[in-house]
Each structure stands twice: as C-alpha cells, then as structure tokens.
Amino acid sequence: MGRYGWDCLQQAVQQQAARTPHAPAVTCGADQLSYAELNARANQLARHLLASGLGPERVVVLALPRSVELVVALLAVLKSGAASLVAPADQPAEVRPDRVLSELRLDDPGLLAHPDTDLPARVLPRSAAYLVPPEGVVLEHSALVDHLHWARGHPIYGPLTCGDTVRAEELEITGWPVLPGADTRVHVLDERLRPVPVGTEGQLYASGTGLARGYHGRPAATAARFVACPFGAPGERMYRTGNLVRRTAEGGLEFLDGHGLPVDPHEVAAVAAAHPGVTRALVLGSVCHLVPNEVVLGEFAADPPLTEPEQTWEWQDATVARILSLRPRRVLEIGFDGGLVLGRVAPHCESYWGTEVSPEAIARMRAAVAEDSRLASKVELWQQAADEVDGLPAGFFDTVIVNAVAQRFPSGAYLAAVLTKVVALLAPGGAVFVGDLRNPRLLPAEQPELLVDPDFFAALREQVPDVDSVDLRLKRAVHHGELSRCRYDVVLRKHGVDTVSLREVPVLAVSDLGELAEHLELVRPARVRLSGVDNRRLVDDGIDPERLHELAEGLEYWAATTWSARPDRFDAVLVAREHLGPGVFDDLYLPGPHSGRELTSDPMPWRPTGRLLDSVRAHLRRELPEYMVPTTLVVVSG
After folding, report:
1. Are 569 and 534 in contact (CB under 8 A)?
2. Are strands 202-207 and 185-189 parallel, antiparallel or unpaired?
3. Distance from C-alpha of 129 to C-alpha of 521, rounded to nearest angstrom
4. What is d(CA 401, CA 320) in angstroms, rounded to the nearest whole number?
5. Beta strands 351-356; 330-334: pairing state
6. Distance separating alpha carbons of residues 365 and 342, to the nearest angstrom
7. CB contact at 8 A, 325 and 346
8. Does residue 320 contact residue 341 with C-beta atoms inside 8 Å?
9. 248 pLDDT tier (thresholds 50, 70, 90)
10. Torsion angle of the four alpha carbons 416, 434, 227, 173, in this order, in degrees rounded to the nearest 10
11. The three-state (H, E, C) secondary structure of 571-635, written as one string
C-alpha cells in the first residue's frame, strides 16, 4: 500500500465500500447507489471494458449526462487501468479516444453477466488516470492521490474516498495542470529559469507530485508548458503557468496580470473562432492565429502576382542550394509550411526537426514523411508558433531555417525575438538561414507582408552578442521578376567559428563586365569589391548580378552579391579560389549611415484582412478580460 493506505483512488473506494456498504455513495434526483452497489457495478463495467481491449494508457471518452451512470463509468475506467475524459454528448473530444461511451444502462444483461467482485490492481502511480477537458491534460494516479489526501477536494473522487455522497447533478469536470497537494511547490523565475529576488517580477512555475503529465497526444504543447525543473530530482518537471508575478516580503505572491488565473489558450481560441469572420483559431504563446472566413477574406484580397513556373523552380533551387552549402546535419526549420525545403534538404541530414502552427499542415507532412523511407526515421514535427522554442533542445542544431515564413511575421520585433531564440538553440559555430526577405527600400510601404531593411541585421547583431557574422546576399536568379528583384537571404553564424571580414577588401571601379574580366585575367587580385553597381534587375543599363556570378565562376573566382546603400545598386566581392580559406565570410554587406528610417515595415494595417483583425481584436476585448487578450493576431491560410 502507498503512504496513504491506498495507491490509487479505486482502492480507496473499495475500502470505503467494505466499511460502509449500505451508505449512499452517489445520488441524482431519485436515483441512488450505495457504496456496495457503486463498487459492484463499476467492477462489472470494468470487466466489460477490459474484454473490449482497454487497459493502461488507453482513453475512454465518457459522453454521458450528469448521472449515477457517469460516476459508475468514471470508477470503472479507473479499475480497467484506462483513463477517462468527460465530454458533452454533443461535443467531440479533442483527443482521439480508444473508446467512446455515450450510453450506459446499469441493468444491461451484458454487464450483469460479468462478476461484480474487485479486480486486481492494474495501474502504477505514473499511469494516466483521467484527462481534463477541454485541453486533454493528463493527470496521473499519483497526482490525484496526493491531492485528495491533502484536500479531499475533487468534486467526484474526494467525497468517495472519505465516505461522503456525490451528487451527480452538481458535478463539474474541470481542472488545472497542477493539483494542489502536500508536495506542491511554486517558483518565480527569470527567462533562464533562475529564481528572482523578492519584489522582482518573474514567471510563475509550479512543481510537485500534483503536476500533470502533459497534454494527451500533443508533444509540442507539452514541451512548451512542462519544462525541466532545475530544483528537483533528475527528470522532474515543472509547469510554466504563463503568469507574471512577484514575491512579497511576507512570502506571498502578487499577480501582475491583475487576476492571478491561468490563461486557457483554448478558451481564447474559442472566443476568437466565434467571430463571424473567423473559421478557426489557435492560440500559441501570446499569438492568436486566425483562419479567416473565405467570404470575408475575398472582400479585401488583392490579386496575387503572377509568376512563371520556371521562376518558382529557380527560386526553390537557389534556396535549397544556399542551405546545402552550409552543410547541415542537425536541422530545425521554423514554419516548414508545404515542405518545399524539408523534402529536399532533409535527405541530406542526420536529423530534421520542423515546427508549424497549422495542425492541418502537421498532419499532411506527417503523412508524407511516413511514406518516404528516406525521411521517416529522421524527421520530427512539432505544432507550435515561431517564437515558442521551449522543449526544443538547446545547443543541438547546427542549422536553423527561417525561410519564407518570416514574411508572415507581424512585426520586426517579433522577427528579432524569433532569431534571438533560435540562435540560442544552435551549437557553437551553427548557422541561421533567414530566407526570402524583401527590401522595403524598393517597395511601397503599404504591403501585407513584413519587409526587412538590410540594416536590420546590423542592428540585430548589436542586440545578440552570440552572432559572430552576418552574410547577407542577393537572391540568385537568372530571371528578373517578383521572386528576384527585391529579395535576399541572410546567414547568421553563432560564435565558435573562424570569421573572415570583407570590410577592407580593395574597391575596384569598372563600368562593365568586359572591363572586369580583363582586370581579373591580367592582374589576378586575391580579393576585390565592386561598389554601387547599377542593378540590371532594376535598371535597364546595369549589370546583371547572375552574369557577374557566371563570369567569376569561369575565371575561378568565388563571388557574392549584396545590397548597396542605394537600393537600385548592388555590391559584389570576388575572391580568387586559391585564396579561399576555412573561415566564413563576414561584412559582405556594409551598412551606410543610419538615416533614422524604420528597419521593418508595419504590415498589420495593410494586410488584406486588416479590418478583420481590428474587428476580431475588438471582439476579444469585449468578451475577455484584458489580460487574456493576445498581444498579436496573425492571419494564416487554412
């Protein structure tokens, strides 16, 4: 037996049935069961469930009304070793159950045919006991036992363990990922999980035997909320509540969100999805992702730019080639979307992790990966927002990919936050590839996507000391079109790699490619920079960057092109191949004097669905307390 005289709740009920067999255990209107009757009926139903293949770690959804049958079913599922989830009959559960019980008659001959004697114990303390709706939080037997011994407070099981009567009409099946108990501990920590001084604000975490296991079937959400506990035994975890608090001098907690209650992302998402312009909503972290009603979306949407298939293929080839040049082995891709990069890069890697906010995208990609023998053993997919990195292994990845998804970020601050977090995930010397960015100096400000000035990365480097080099290059392309004119890629390198600065490379003034070729052949300089070259992609009489690359390759030079201070011009650096060393290049792009301009656009007011976002935000503020309103709303495709 456990330290309380019983290891699991069904044992406590069995003991109570032996002590007071005729005492009322559960009532609902005129219906009533004694402890002996409750225990006997639960034994019969448990045997029936076992005969259908249920057992430990299986899930039974109980779509039953508040009734004596519901209490019998809850106890029977525990006796079978499975876990239960109570859900309304007209609302499907969010988890995939092994069995749904929507009707139960205690006088059913099939049930009465089973013996009504107690079953052998079929659970361990860490076995799943039940799932709390609507999130599907998995509570284990040890958590429930500790909580009930401490408080006797659970509305179903608490009364049954101490001889009281459960009134089924009053049942509310709710819960929180941490049940108060004798061993419950709270921590106020900074972003590095270090305790903060009294009076200093920090994030509230909870740990102890009352901690839930996590969210059923949702490893990404579990990893984001249930993190390693640095103050407990090896393997112990704690729950990140999301509350901002500070300890008082008296030892209490002051909640800085004004309420002190955990924010339920599913509740927020449900309120957002109730807006008539929204089909679905998903809340991850502080960001609410909205799938708009297509009718509403069509009211504002502009015609997309037309792109020839050849240009799209070229765009993909250039992106994949730049990533593979980094020699990736352990990769994390933020926002893999349709898998255009994943499908071509992952076969070359040892391990490939991908995150995506859309559950539909996750499901489609998992199905595709399962059918590809090259990928099935090395690809791992997580559902989470770009700025949610809790649970991802720090120091593991040598390459992080943030490709076209950056265009959909809501602000420059969000982009900076994402890049700061993923740099921390890199092993020393690792690289972050930021792809398919667009230069705002060449486009009108009224754009639905985020535009990023090249100088943004010089400023980011000052903010993130771990970044040792910034390699910013124009997009490689033969065609001149929407996918090449304004676009560029950046590679950020984490400390731990040798860097070679290109800042002091001698500048050569040439008027055309013929003059450049003559100089390279006759002089054979080790390094040379072309500065302020008219860009043929943008002006009629300029030099084509791709032609320059072809010339350099033919003369055994490495070449890279980047932006100049004037947006219709570019710089290029050429290095003779015999002078290429083992380090990585830095200072290819040279920022000019800062003019005070904004380094990113503000896409939110100009999104095709900008008015919809304003309407949804107002709707959320009407229906929710202010502290529960997400800080950012993002429109995603369904």
Report:
1. yes
2. antiparallel
3. 77
4. 11
5. parallel
6. 10
7. no
8. yes
9. confident
10. 90
11. EEEEEEHHHCCCCEEECCCCCCCCCCCCCECCCHHHCCCHHHHHHHHHHHHHHCCHHHCCCEEEE
> 305 or 541, which is more confident?
541
CA distance 228 to 2: 26
Q: How far apart are CA 348 and CA 499, in angstroms?
A: 25
Q: CA-CA distances (angstroms) from residue 240 to 176, 193, 205, 209, 226?
A: 12, 10, 5, 15, 6
Amino acid (1-letter code) at residue 594: H
Question: Band of the pLDDT at 55, cuts 50, 70, 90?
Answer: confident
Q: Global pTM?
A: 0.54
Query: What are the structure tokens assigned to 461, written together?
Result: 């480097």
Please calculate the CA angle 630-633-635 and round it to the nearest 5 degrees.
Answer: 150
Q: Let me know: does 83 contact 77? Beta carbons within 8 Å.
A: yes
Neighbours of 495 (CB within 10 A): 15
Q: How many CA atoms lie within 13 A of 77 on its CB side?
A: 27
Query: Six-digit token pair at 300?
Result: 């504002």
Where is pLDDT greater, at 129 or 552? Answer: 552
Candidates 304, 387, 380, 267; CA nearest to 634 is 387
Question: Residue 10 phi/psi, 5° resolution?
Answer: -65, -30
Main-chain dihedrals φ then ψ at residue 471, nearest 5 degrees: -115, 100
Looking at residue 84, its amino acid is: S
Q: State the virtual CA torsion across 497, 465, 356, 280 in degrees, nearest 10.
A: -170
Q: In this structure, how many other beta carbons lie within 10 angstroms of the beta carbon of residue 611? A: 14
**Sheet with 31-34, edge to edge strand ranges:** 31-34, 24-28, 166-167
Poorest-pLDDT segment among 32-46, 281-295, 386-400? 281-295
Is the pLDDT at 482 greater than 50? The verdict is yes
For the chain, how are helix, strand and coil distributed in percent, rounded to 5? 30, 25, 45
Cβ-based neighbours of 250, under 8 Å, separated by 6 or more: none
Of 222, 213, 35, nearest to 127 by C-alpha is 213
Cβ-contact 14, 121 below 8 angstroms: no
Going from the C-alpha of 296 to that of each of 155, 275, 351, 558, 635, the distances in angstroms are 44, 11, 41, 50, 12
Alpha-carbon span 85 to 74, nearest angstrom: 9
Q: What is the mean pLDDT of the chain?
A: 83
DSSP one-letter string for 248-295: -TTS-EEETTSS-----HHHHHHHHHTSTTEEEEEEETTEEEEEE-HH
Q: Which of 339, 335, 402 is nearest to 369 (CA)?
A: 339
Instruction: Indicate if the alpha-carbon torsion angle 143, 149, 151, 157 is positive or negative.
Output: positive
E strand or H helix that includes residue 220: helix 219-225
Query: Each residue of 23-44: b (16+ CB within 10 Å) or e?
Result: ebbbbbeeeebbbbbbbbbbbb
Task: With beta carbons less than 8 A apart as the criterion, state whether 87 and 133 touch.
Answer: yes
